[in-house]
Design brief:
about 75% helix; mainly alpha; about 80 residues
């Protein structure tokens, strides 16, 4: 019987899991907002405006880190469950 390619320890399938992506999005919204306040708060307070590229990176980096960490943990758990 052919196995489902979405089962097992596949990192890519874990990365594309909606639960992983949803969790990463939530983390990036919270951490990205905090980073924007820390990194650009003074600039915005002084009326100089927001640097859009920096703001996007402040959200993108935590999203990537969270998604990678979640997918790696998920793939390792799934891989160890099939090796037992």
């Amino acid at each position: 019987m052919a196995s489902n390619p979405r089962q097992g320890g596949s990192f890519l399938w874990s990365l594309l899991d909606p639960a992983i992506l949803g969790g990463a999005l939530k983390v990036s919204l919270v951490v990205g907002a905090a980073l924007n306040v820390i990194n650009q708060g003074q600039r915005v307070w002084e009326g100089q405006g927001l640097l859009i590229g920096h703001a996007l990176l402040n959200f993108l980096v935590p999203f990537c880190v969270s998604a990678y960490s979640g997918a790696r943990a998920h793939a390792e758990r799934a891989g160890s469950a099939t090796n037992c």
